[in-house]
Amino acid sequence: MSTAVSRTELAAFLRSRRERVQPEEVGLPGGGRRRTPGLRREEVAQLARVGVTWYTWLEQGRPINASPSVLEAIAGALRLDGGETTHLFTLAGAAAPPAVDDAAQVDPVTRHVLDAVAPLPACLVNTRLDVITQNRPSEQLFGSTQELPPGRRNNLWLVFAEPRWRTMMADWELESAHLIGLYRAALAEHLGEPNWQDLVDELIEISPEFRSTWAEHRVAQPGGRTKLFQHPTAGLLRFRTASQWLQPRAGLRMVIYCPVDAATEHTLHRWQQAGPKPFTDWSDQARYGRCARPPLQQVG
Fold first, then answer.
1. Which residue from 116, 82, 91, 100 is spatially nearest to 251, judged by alpha carbons?
2. In sequence order, which residues have a C-beta less than 8 Å from that of residue 280 and are 6 or more positions away?
3. Which one is predicted more confidently, 254 or 29?
């Protein structure tokens, strides 16, 4: 990408992110007539502790340089998430800051609610379908995603590249296609962001099934779904999911798995009483080979 194009993209990116942040969200007084949605340029400059003229020039795509510390301050003022911050640094031609553990950023109240819904499995996911954190029953059902590298704690990656997940999902074809639809719909607001496109490019390269379904351009929206899992020790489990938006602007939602039959409900209560360790073997590559669809156990 040329320097001129980068400056143009940076200007558009900053403007779009500024317009989505409401003054009340960052402790500024709201109300009154505003000619543009979201924050004003001078308000961003105030929050980031930079000059108004300098920030205006940056958002206008003028040839000025920004240090990493200033970019981090702007990212904080605009409430950018990890992927957006990386994108900001990339457009500005600066080295990206170290990755932040998203799970460590979950506030105590949200963590308490997540744990309180036990014995129901529940997890927090963002619009990119990253699993931010889980409660104990979710770990017992799926395994702990914290055992995976941060870049691999992603539902789309798991269903196409991790054999254990593919084996567990009795309705794999239906659910994997739905996840692709969710990702494509969310991608519309993140076009050009490296961490979004890199995941697509990698899955296109390693998974013929992903490549074929991605080419269909299907889209989907989050909502309740019935899901079937062939658990390695508990057998067939049936759930209905419910999604609760926690931070709609950041795309963070809690997904809760509710049992739809007595056998599944009994299993959850048995897990709660016995407290079995979650399985965490995500390295079953030798058995099936990466992205080769393993045979499912007989269900029904």
1. 82
2. 143, 144, 147
3. 254
Whether 207 and 172 have beta carbons less than 8 Å apart is answered as no
Per-residue tokens: 158: 């798991």
Cis bond upstream, residue 119 (ω within 30): yes
- What is the number of other CB atoms lying within 10 angstroms of the CB of residue 26? 16
AA identity, residue 180: I
What is the sign, positive or negative, of the torsion defined by CA atoms of 229, 233, 236, 240? Answer: negative
Instruction: Choose the weakest-confidence range: 6-15, 132-141, 228-237.
Output: 6-15
Q: What is the DSSP secondary-structure string of 43-106?
A: HHHHHHT--HHHHHHHHTT-S----HHHHHHHHHHTT--HHHHHHHHHHHT-PPPPPP-GGGGS
- Residues 148-164 have pLDDT tens digits of 877 789 999 999 998 88
Tokens describing residue 269 = 């209560």
- What single letter denotes the amino acid at residue 153? R
Q: Starting at the earlier edge strand, list the strands of the sheet with 122-125.
A: 131-134, 122-125, 252-259, 235-247, 226-231
